[in-house]
Amino acid sequence: MTDINDLIGNTVKQIDATVTRKRTFATADETITRLKHFCEDHLVGDDYHQLLHIVECLEADVRSLAESTGYRRGH
């Protein structure tokens, strides 16, 4: 038989992990957006293209990780 305190404790841990994960991915989204704006506002030529490529790869990696954990942007 499951102890009610264990059940509550596990539920709280799951909620906390979900909230933390959402904050982490939301922060990553914000950071990527800021990096893209930085590229657009301050860089030109090869510097622009190189850093933008890095940011786009980072964005793809973050999106993939987020999707694998069940996080959907905006939720």
Give a quick summary of the entry.
With 75 residues, the chain is mainly α. Helices cover 84% and strands 0% of the residues.
Q: What is the mean predicted local confidence, pLDDT?
A: 81
The amount of beta strand, in percent, is under 5%
Assign a percent range to the helix content: over 70%
Largest sheet: none
- Tell me the domain tally: 1
Low-confidence stretches: none
Account of the 3D structure:
The protein is mainly α and 75 residues long. The chain has one domain. 84% of the residues lie in helices and 0% in strands. The chain has helices spanning 4-42, 45-68. α1 packs antiparallel against α2 (45-68). It starts with a helix and ends in a 7-residue tail after the last helix. The model has no long low-confidence stretch (mean pLDDT 81).
Indicate the topology.
Blueprint: H1 4-42, H2 45-68
Helix pairs in contact: 1-2
Descriptive key words:
75 residues; mainly alpha; 84% helix
